[in-house]
Amino acid sequence: MPPMVESATGFTLGCDHCVSGSPNEQAAFNFEAAFGQMKLKEGQGQEKSNAWGRDQKRGEYNTKSHVVLTTHPRRGSPIQIKWGATSPAERGPIIATLSQPRLRNAIGTHNGSYSVYRSIAVAAGKMDPMFRPDLHNTAPPVMIPPNPSWFDPTKIVSMDPWGHMIVDSYGSHLKEGVDIRPTIAITKAHIQMLELVEAMEKGRLQADGNILQSDGSCVVTKAAIEHVWYLPGVAQRFNITEATLRRCMFEQTGGMFPELITRSDLEVFLPPIGGLTVYIFGPAEYLQDPSKVCTVRVHDECNGSDVFGSDICTCRPYLVHGIEECVRTAQNGGVGVIVYFRKEGRSLGEVTKFLVYNARKRQEGGDRAETYFHRTACVAGVEDMRFQELMPDALHWLGITKIDKLISMSDMKYNAITGSGIKVLERVPIPDDMIPADAHVEIDAKMYAGYYVPEEKRAIINDDFVKQSKGRGLDA
Ligand SMILES: [Zn+2]
């Protein structure tokens, strides 16, 4: 056992796995042993909070208590994950709990970026760090069942396909007391957008009392998904080595997850980023049936437009158009899907996005399509960080093998989807009358740069076209 060291924060540092045993004993380390030790510790009741360093009298962490480091390579995880295995038992549960450090077989933790807020809740004494969720009655009302893509370790690499089936798949582990958390939750909802009421008034949509109600609300099944990255698969998707991926993620997060470097035995990472939400219009079981017409929009978050109606881009109108098409498809006996990714401002974030808006509008010659991408790269260092390579995973999880109507003009999205083996029969552009006043710069620049252009418009997308497209000034 190595000596404890005093850190700059006053905490003593040590490694959880250094606490017992010779190398031979360590080699014999297995799930039963780890779990037995863990239960013994938990049996000490009152001691358990103290093991995490909380001084229960003052509600603050005791700086003399032991901080558990997780950075050293271990003698292997107690439960190995076999990514792409055909049964949940063979694949193994993903254990990213912080309450049972010895059982962890993943880097990072649950709840994406919200894990940082959880740390404040615990630090402020509002939450017990050992809290376990009560999953009673949380099961999906609509099931997304396994399909062949789940069993191909290359088809889905950024989410856990079994993430909504934790209770059924790992019930015996849960009964034993293993802290396994869902990374997907499915529920049902009514959604209402003003534009859908307007579409009904204008006769573009008709209520049917099932998919679309007379008040303009849509009945949907929705699924929230947290990222669960299988690092070898993610690296392969970007055609880079796993070592390069791990090193860059470690460095570019300011060293947030040292295990990316030190724990090559852990191949699964739960990144602290926003996830995605799937909205299904019509019967979910149709998604796995290629004889049914399927309409899809994969949409990347744009808070300014999606929620607040900013007119500088086409995001919300295109989203609404996607929903309209999904409703129509479902009403005609098919199924529609919107996948909403938390990739604000092309994954650059809103601060960068607003800086770019200013730079675009203040540049010499004003905001124009000709310099649209260049101005983004000047501020962000890159034109786009959404990298659609991981996006098709959600479609494969749903069991989609063919998309009749893809409501997108993005060549990156189209190439990623078709490159992953899903057929796309038709690409649907945003109707001209839905493009907001100041958004022509964006859509024109994208069409010029290689986005899908409908046949009738191809002749006009040339150098003159992109030079003519101008936006409003900053003070206008
Ligand atoms: Zn936008």
UniProtKB/TrEMBL annotation:
InterPro entries: GTP_CH_N, GTP_cyclohydro_II, RibA, RibA-like_sf. One of its GO terms (molecular function) is GTP binding. It comes from the Eukaryota. Keywords: GTP-binding, Hydrolase, Nucleotide-binding. One of its GO terms (biological process) is riboflavin biosynthetic process. Residues 293-429 form the GTP cyclohydrolase II domain. SUPFAM superfamilies: RibA-like. The keyword Hydrolase applies. Residues 66-252 form the GTP cyclohydrolase N-terminal domain. CDD domains: GTP_cyclohydro2. The keyword Acyltransferase does not apply. Gene3D superfamilies: GTP cyclohydrolase II (3.40.50.10990). Residues 41-61 are annotated as: Disordered. PANTHER family: PTHR47259, URACIL-REGULATED PROTEIN 1 (PTHR47259:SF2). NCBIfam families: PRK07198.1. This is GTP cyclohydrolase II. It comes from Guillardia theta (strain CCMP2712) (Cryptophyte).
